[in-house]
Amino acid sequence: MIRTPLRPLARILEARASGENPDAIERENLRIRHEQMRDSAQNRAEGRLLILSVMFFCAFGVIGARMSVLASTDPQEPRAASSGAAILAQRADITDRHGRILATNFETHSLYAQPKQMVDKERVAAELAAIFPDLNQEKMLKNFTGERKFLWIKKKLSPEQKQAVHDIGDPGLLFGPREMRLYPNGKLAAHVMGGASFGREGVHAAEVIGVAGVEKFFDDELRDPAREGAPLALSIDLTVQAAAEEVLYGGMKLMNAKGAASVLMDVKSGEIISIVSLPDFDPNARPSPLVEGDASDSPLFNRAVQGVYELGSAYKIFTAAQAMDLNLVNHNTMIDTGKALRVGGFNIGEFKKKNYGVLSVDDIIVKSSNRGTGRMALQIGVKRQKEFMKNMGFMDYTPLEIVEAKGGQPLYPERWTDLSAVTISYGHGISNSPLHLAAGYAAIANGGTYIPPTILKRTQAPTGHRVMREDTAEYARNMLRMVVTDGTASFGEVPGYAVGGKTGTADKIKERGGGYYKDKVIATFASLFPAYDPKYVLVVTLDEPSETSGKKPRRTAGWTAVPVAAEMIGRVAPLLGLRPEIEPGELAGITLTSN
């Protein structure tokens, strides 16, 4: 800015020459300068006011917009800040083969406390103890009055509990959102589901992880965001599972058994339609595992896949099938079972010291002769028997997709001798799970192909591997049918559904000291139906059954496991879409002739 002098020399000289007062010139120039300064200051002030006005307008606009957003949302409790990586809580549903929910997610809340923010700690402790009787009031008060800044109160709240805590009205009690695992069917298929729990936890979310069953086996898949929430479809049929559990529970109580298990399997696809282990539990409130004693005493123990037992005479059909498959015998071959059989320094006897004499292979299975199957085992030989048992899956745990399946490792002789071959031929000296047995019977039922069992719904049947010829499997099925019509499983007949099967009663091995109990058995009935065109295999096993309707307790499978299996088949066969059929029989006094 160029300033104009207040007393310019040229103007002063001119004024003196003309007789004007030079001071008037200075006053005029000073006035003009002041006016210019005033105008400049005014312009500057107006500019600043404009900028401040714009800033205030924007600030109030942001505040108003935020207030509008808050007014349109639901009220929420204040949440404590958390650090660390975000927790992925979403978990896919699990469904049965028809899409019915077996496991899903449920939105709930957790309760935590910030004691430093509490107003009345004594009142809060007393009211929380009233809402949650399992909480200790004195311990809570001690925690509230200590140095702790954060304290979990409850990991899961019901809506009623949340409202009751909210009514306490203390600012030190806060809620965090939670997504918990819910099993809407309660105990149904409990051992298949297994259960879930919380992993990493924060006040904003909690990580839901599987702890057993399919929940743990498929934990990564169920938590994989790439699935986009697609449910995991199991092979289980919820309706059939419910019927099987009801019948098996009733049978276990009626037969005074300690426990029970059943496996229902599709013989062509290998899909497990139902699998039950009793006693069971509610996965919504999974109990703690036992820390001492027998693991099988825990309801968490899955008898169907973890329980490995000597399953007795149910194995005899495999010995007969292998002998026929090797062309060592046919179903009519006669074998002397009355003659003494001594192997490895031990006499091989029959049940209750019976003497059946000379029997055909058919009758050996029907009458369940130990000596008959033992003699066939000696013809087969140790090497071939061992190879056959391995091909049938009896020497490895079953590849079922639940974590407990690996615990069902079979027990068999480290040194496989002739005596081992004989005892194994009638189901002693080798221990397997009911699932092993079901998979073996499925190979007979489907024409001689071993199909690995699965708990997943399959869109197409796997190829499997052949373990016997088709004609051998057919002869074996006919034998199993005769066991029901003429043999030890007569209580297994179900009108309209031709049932074939084999009983197995094995003395229970002592947990300590070796040897066998004299009054405790594992009773098993392995069956297939319809016998002439099998669709399903059912294995029922009872632990320490005792049928007491007679003068003396009866523990054999024919009196215990067989009637339970028959009742189950009668209940589930219609649910599986099988129509009852009347078997052709003899027409008394009528001769059919053609025109």
What does this entry look like structurally?
The chain is α+β, with helices and mostly antiparallel strands. It folds into two domains: 94-233, Penicillin-binding protein 2a (Domain 2), CATH 3.90.1310; 239-286 and 295-575, DD-peptidase/beta-lactamase superfamily (Beta-lactamase), CATH 3.40.710.10. The protein is 35% helix and 19% strand. It is built from 17 helices and 18 strands. The protein has helices at residues 9-18, 22-72, 121-131, 137-144, 159-168, 190-193, 213-217, 219-222, 238-254, 316-325, 361-367, 370-380, 382-391, 418-425, 434-445, 470-486, 561-575; strands spanning 94-95, 101-113, 151-157, 173-182, 195-201, 206-212, 232-233, 259-266, 272-278, 334-336, 341-343, 346-348, 358-360, 449-450, 465-466, 500-509, 516-529, 536-543. The strands form six sheets. Strands 1, 2, 3, 4 and 7 form a five-stranded mixed β-sheet that branches. The protein has a five-stranded antiparallel β-sheet with strand order 9-8-18-17-16, with helices on both faces. Strand 5 and strand 6 form a beta hairpin. Helix 3 packs antiparallel against helix 4 and helix 9 (238-254) runs antiparallel to helix 17 (561-575). The longest helix has 51 residues, at 22-72. The radius of gyration is 42 Å and the shape is elongated. The N and C termini lie far apart (137 Å).
